[in-house]
């Protein structure tokens, strides 16, 4: 069943181009994007919503956090993200015009399901599930749904479920943008073309595996690692840190790079590898000064750069050149590189990649 692969996680990382094209199959025709892909009532509901509340756990919550950047920038409506286990026990103020989006690979996560029940009790009726399992509990309880088509995910560490969730959330962003802020047709067309091309762009990142494998050697004997990102790549830094700690048991933390000076810089020394997600976007110059702060303290930088980047190898800084800069969808490419990094560090350490200690694939108890 594993074919040419050594583990399910590796197989699932490499299945991502196919998982994305399956999830985005509705884009294969030339027609316009239709709200109906989220359910029969989607058009009416989207017309009424004034904001979005995303609720999820773990990796699925990082998909939600990435979408927050997209929704506020492209659709121009407020979006908040809550961890399900926090939301369900918190007194919050419900806004019935808010679209509540629950994201879950399994559709069975106890806290996410309970948070959905809580939202409904508080009067939310505009509910949407983004889920990878069509017959799961969560999907049966929402007004709207979108089923990602990642196929079964066996590895405990979520990979293809995450990138397909991101693709679904980008579709949601575009539909909300069309309905709420009159997204110009040429912009819609350009975004849809980028989505269609995404599987090919992911293939090019997968081709970096041999280089990433070399980097894995530098991490395997470390106790800690810091992941830095800014903007829509901050949740990707968080996801990269989660992947590393989950399967290699190396303590990894993610910070928005601008927070360095407010505390974590004190941790940086020669023993602290610092992974930086440094796409060639509007925040790169800011990020470069953060990298300087790390170098000046002897920290070792491992930087994922892309496009025509000015970030180059230098003393204390190694650069992994990603194939192309992919604009708003760039998080999808950068996370694939981080999945590969975590996978190869775990291989060097000899941990049980597909079944990390203490964890279950589906967390059906709180
Ligand atoms: O099935 P779900 O998406 O609801 O699961 C949520 C988390 O338990 C899950 O993403 C977890 O964080 C992964 N093991 C991370 O790789």
TrEMBL record:
One of its GO terms (biological process) is UDP-N-acetylglucosamine metabolic process. It is found in: Cytoplasm. The active site is at residue 361. The gene is glmS. Homodimer. The chain holds residues 248 to 613 of 613 of the full protein. GO terms for cellular component: cytosol. This is Glutamine--fructose-6-phosphate aminotransferase [isomerizing]. Catalyzes the first step in hexosamine metabolism, converting fructose-6P into glucosamine-6P using glutamine as a nitrogen source. GO terms for molecular function: carbohydrate derivative binding; glutamine-fructose-6-phosphate transaminase (isomerizing) activity. Keywords: Aminotransferase, Cytoplasm, Glutamine amidotransferase, Repeat, Transferase. Its main location: cytoplasm. It catalyses: D-fructose 6-phosphate + L-glutamine = D-glucosamine 6-phosphate + L-glutamate. The lineage of its organism: Bacteria, Pseudomonadati, Pseudomonadota, Gammaproteobacteria, Oceanospirillales. Residues 42-182, 215-356 form the SIS domain. It comes from Salinicola socius. Its EC number is 2.6.1.16.
């Amino acid at each position: 069943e594993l074919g040419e692969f050594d583990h399910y996680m590796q197989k699932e990382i490499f299945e991502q181009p196919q998982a994305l094209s399956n999830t985005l199959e509705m884009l294969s025709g030339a027609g316009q994007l239709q709200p109906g892909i989220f359910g029969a009532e989607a058009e009416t509901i989207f017309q009424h919503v004034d904001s979005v509340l995303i609720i999820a756990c773990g990796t699925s919550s990082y998909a939600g956090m990435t979408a927050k950047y997209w929704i506020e920038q492209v659709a121009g409506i407020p979006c908040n993200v809550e961890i399900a286990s926090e939301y369900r026990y918190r007194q919050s103020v419900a806004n019935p015009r808010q679209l509540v989006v629950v994201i879950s690979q399994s559709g069975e996560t106890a806290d996410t399901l309970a948070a959905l029940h809580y939202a409904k009790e508080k009067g939310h009726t505009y509910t949407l599930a983004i889920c990878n399992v069509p017959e799961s509990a969560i999907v049966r309880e929402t007004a709207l749904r979108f089923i990602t088509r990642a196929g079964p995910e066996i590895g405990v560490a979520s990979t293809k479920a995450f990138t397909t969730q991101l693709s679904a959330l980008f579709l949601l962003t575009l539909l909300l943008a069309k309905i709420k802020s009159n997204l110009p047709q040429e912009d819609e067309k350009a975004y849809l073309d980028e989505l269609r091309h995404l599987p090919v762009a992911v293939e090019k990142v997968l081709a970096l595996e041999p280089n990433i494998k070399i980097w894995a050697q530098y991490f395997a004997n470390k106790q800690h690692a810091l992941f830095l990102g800014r903007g829509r790549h901050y949740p990707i830094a968080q996801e990269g840190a989660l992947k590393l700690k989950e399967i290699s048991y190396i303590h990894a933390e993610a910070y928005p790079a601008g927070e360095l000076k407010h505390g974590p810089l004190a941790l940086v020394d020669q023993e602290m590898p610092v992974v930086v997600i440094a796409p060639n976007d509007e925040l790169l110059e800011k990020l470069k000064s953060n990298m300087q702060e790390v170098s000046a303290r002897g920290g070792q930088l491992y930087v994922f750069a892309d496009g025509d980047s000015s970030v180059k190898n230098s003393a204390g800084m190694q650069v992994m050149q990603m194939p192309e800069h992919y604009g708003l969808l760039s998080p999808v490419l950068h996370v694939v590189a981080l999945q590969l990094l975590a996978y190869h560090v775990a291989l060097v350490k000899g941990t049980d990649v597909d079944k990390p200690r203490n964890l279950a694939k589906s967390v059906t108890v709180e």
